[in-house]
Amino acid sequence: MSSRNFFAELKRRNVYKVAVGYAVVGWLLIQVATQVFPFFEIPNWGVRLIVLLIVVGFPIALVIAWAFELTPGGIKRTEEADRAYPSRSRGRAWIYVVISAGVLSAGLFFLGRYTAPNENKIPNVPAKSIAVLPFENLSRDSDNAYFAEGIQDEILTRLAKVADLKVISRTSTQRYKSSPNDLPQIAKQLGVANILEGSVQKSQDQVRVNVQLINAATDAHLWADSFDRKLIDILAVESEIAAKVADTLQAKLTGAEQHAISMQPTQNTEAYQLYLKGRYFWNKRTGPDLQKAIDYFKQAIDKDSNYALAYVGLGDSYILLSGFGAAPPQDSFPLAEAAAKKALEIDDTLAEAHTTLGFSLCVHHFDFAGSIREFERAIALNPNYATAHHWFGDGPLLAVGQFDRAIAEGKRALELDPLSVIITADLGANYLVARRYDEAIEQFHKAIDLDPRFYYSHWNLAQALELKGNPREALAEYKKAVELDDDPFVLALLGQGYAKLGQRDEALKILAQLPQIGAHRYVSAYSYALLYVALGDKDKAIEWLERSYEEGAGLDLIFLKVDPMLDPLQKEPRFQALVAKVFATRSSITPSR
């Protein structure tokens, strides 16, 4: 049979019609499966099975179309049908079936693509987004909890260096247990599409790490593996896991990012374990725990003097000491700066070190231009480092009045660490300084919802209410903050709240208490200044702010130009002279993005 006769015979036997019809109806079935199966929680293998059956059935349908014919007397072999019905009409009904099926499948395709949301998905969540949940400690020794946390933290840190990924910060993932049952809900709360969970078992010098990467919306396991290694090889395992996760999520890696993921910060396993213990206590965020962290970081440095991350941990601990009442800032900030600089001498690519140095330049030296450069460098190196965005917005950008940019950085920090109470509250503080009081109040309420006992949120909310013109509501929040913490600064805020309500005697009582408290703990000069502003004594207020400058209390002074609580002083010549001193190193800052 010639090729021309063969194709003519294909046409005569309706093989073409069956092929077109089969393709259209098959496409319709695939669309139905992909759109309807998830609604009934049918797993993805069900959809794959449908596709496989359709593909396998295609050649079978063509063979049947060649060999058999549908006639008024039923299905008959083609040769018999030709003899029995030589003049039968080959209707065009199949055209209408194909057109109808095509229209229906196209409608399902576009409906599913553009209008049918999956209840497990969150709008605008990047496909290349991930949260690394706490790794379960399977070791018999409960003291090895620090080791499991360290493995999680190191994998997360390596992934965070990949700009093509969105990686949630550790502080937001820590409240979840490993292998939870409600992955879709956790993914919604964290704003990610994927979850990495695992377990760690350590016995003497042997370590077993089990990990699995899961698509949270479909519960599909994208990748899983187990690693049995010697303790000395654990850093290589962390690199391997991070690289595999990035590859599975199809993240594009630059050469520098590939190097960052594979880099081993130390070859000394003792130093590494001491570093993990330091981070374990650093994350607890109390004065005594920070002191323990400092001790462990110092021990790690003793084991490996070129361990850059250990210097970063040391700097991070010193930079937080004053915030938790464990040391005066003029004592701790220089030590933090020295540790950050040492880390950068060893490795200039550490975003964490640039962040610590940037914060120190801001609050310790009032070098806002230098601080901005360091933060920009940190974010360029690690765009997923939430603390860099947080301190950048809440530090130099806010201080120099770049409010929109400060708020944008605060929002970015919150995207990366959505359950962080301090980042949530400090975004509210950015709104407050920008005089956007309604948004500030809303943000502080969100922080209080996350942790009702976090006194910082309450006194910030009180300030926003006071500045908006609701002094009585503000006073109630100041009182809540005082009940939750004995911070003398909050007591001073309560005193100035009394003064603004005309309760001068109550304000003076608190003013008299501050020197008594200062006899055994640090009371900031800024606390006195706010009280005197509320009492109407501007000279005394400026005098205390000048004392604050002499003490080097940068955390209070960097906001002199923008602090709405100090608005009554803005036109005073002595106040402007003090502002000029603080901002002497900044004439016009126009840093590049």
Structural commentary:
By secondary structure, the protein is of the alpha/beta class. The protein contains 28 helices and eight strands. The protein has helices spanning 3-12, 15-36, 44-67, 78-84, 93-114, 145-160, 170-173, 183-190, 234-248, 255-262, 269-282, 287-303, 308-321, 329-346, 351-365, 368-381, 386-399, 403-416, 421-433, 437-450, 455-468, 471-484, 488-500, 504-518, 525-535, 538-551, 554-557, 573-582; strands at 68-71, 74-77, 129-132, 136-137, 166-167, 194-203, 206-215, 220-230. The strands form two sheets. Strands 3, 4, 5, 6, 7 and 8 form a six-stranded mixed beta sheet that branches. It has a two-stranded antiparallel ribbon with strand order 1-2. It starts with a helix and ends in an 11-residue tail after the last helix. The relative contact order is 0.05.
Highlighted features:
single chain, 593 residues, alpha/beta, two-stranded antiparallel sheet, 28 helices, 64% helix
Structural class by secondary-structure content: alpha/beta
Which of globular, elongated, flat, extended, rod-shaped describes the shape? globular
Number of helices: 28
What is the average per-residue confidence, as pLDDT, rounded to a whole number? 83
Range of helix content: 55-70%
**Biggest β-sheet description:** 6 strands, mixed
Strands, total number: 8
Gap between N and C termini, in Å? 73 Å
Radius of gyration: 33 Å
Sequence stretches where pLDDT stays below 50 over 5 or more residues: 113-120, 586-593
Strand content: 5-15%
Helices and strands in order:
Blueprint: H1 3-12, H2 15-36, H3 44-67, E1 68-71, E2 74-77, H4 78-84, H5 93-114, E3 129-132, E4 136-137, H6 145-160, E5 166-167, H7 170-173, H8 183-190, E6 194-203, E7 206-215, E8 220-230, H9 234-248, H10 255-262, H11 269-282, H12 287-303, H13 308-321, H14 329-346, H15 351-365, H16 368-381, H17 386-399, H18 403-416, H19 421-433, H20 437-450, H21 455-468, H22 471-484, H23 488-500, H24 504-518, H25 525-535, H26 538-551, H27 554-557, H28 573-582
Parallel strand pairs: 3-5, 3-6, 4-6
Antiparallel strand pairs: 1-2, 6-7, 7-8
